[in-house]
Amino acid sequence: MNYLVLLALIATLGTWLVTALGAATVVFFKSPNEKIMNFMLGFASGVMIAASFWSLLQPAIEWAELSSQVPAYIVTTVGFLFGACFLWGSDKIVTFARRNAERTHGKPNGRLNRIIMLVLSITLHNIPEGLAVGVAFGALQNGNFTTEGLMGAITIATGIGLQNFPEGAAVSVPLRREGCSRKKSFLLGQASGMVEPVAGVIGALLIVYVEAILPYALSFAAGAMILVAVHELIPECQKNQQELPYFATMGIILGFAVMMLLDVMLG
Known about the structure:
Elements (H helix, E strand, L loop, with lengths): L2 H21 L1 H4 L5 H34 L4 H32 L6 H29 L8 H31 L4 H10 L3 H15 L4 H24 L9 H20 L1
C-alpha cells in the first residue's frame, strides 16, 4: 500500500474514533453538555473554513497554474461548486427520504424509518469529509511531502475529527430517546463514521494514481467543507445564542485563528 494512502487511512481511522467517542457519551451521560458541544462545533467550523482556503483552495490554485491547461480560476471554481453541489444533492436525497419516513410516524415501521434516516443523514455527510482528508494526504506526493503540507493535512483531519465528536453524539442520543438501548445507540452512532476511512482511502488513491484530478479534488473537498461549516455547523452551534451570545462565535474565531496560524507559520 502506498504510504500516503496508509497515512490517509490512519488519519480517517482517527476521525472515526472521535465519532465513536462522541457516540459513547450516550453510555456515560444522559445528554452531552450543550454549551461544550456548541463551542466544539464552532471551533470545528472555524478550522474547516480556514483549512478550506489555506490547505485546499490555495494548493489547488498553485497546482492548476503549474500543471493544468485550463485556467486555474476555472479549475478551482468548478471543483469548489461541484463539491458543494454534491453535498447539497446528498442532503436533498436525505431530506426527501426523511419526509417519507415522517409520514409513517405512528405506523409499525415509523420508528425504524426514523432511526435509519438519522444514521443515513450523518453517514452521507461523512463521505465528503473522509474524501477531504484522503485528498489532503494524497496531495503530498511527488515532492510535496513537506512539513507544512503534512501539518495542513493533519489539521484538516483534526478539524473534521473535532466536529465528528458532536456528530457521533447527535446520532446516539436521539436513538436513545427513540427507545434504543445504550449499547445499540452507541453501535449505530459510531457506525455512521465508519464510512470515513473508506472515503479517505478512495480519495488518496485517486490523487496518488490519477494526478491530473488533484486541483479539482482539492477544490471539491473545499466546497464540501465550506457547505458543511456554513449550512450545518455554524447554525447548530448558535442555538443557545440568546443565553451566551458570543460563546460559540468565539469558538469559530479561535478555530479559524488556530488553523490560520499553523498554516501561515509553517508555510
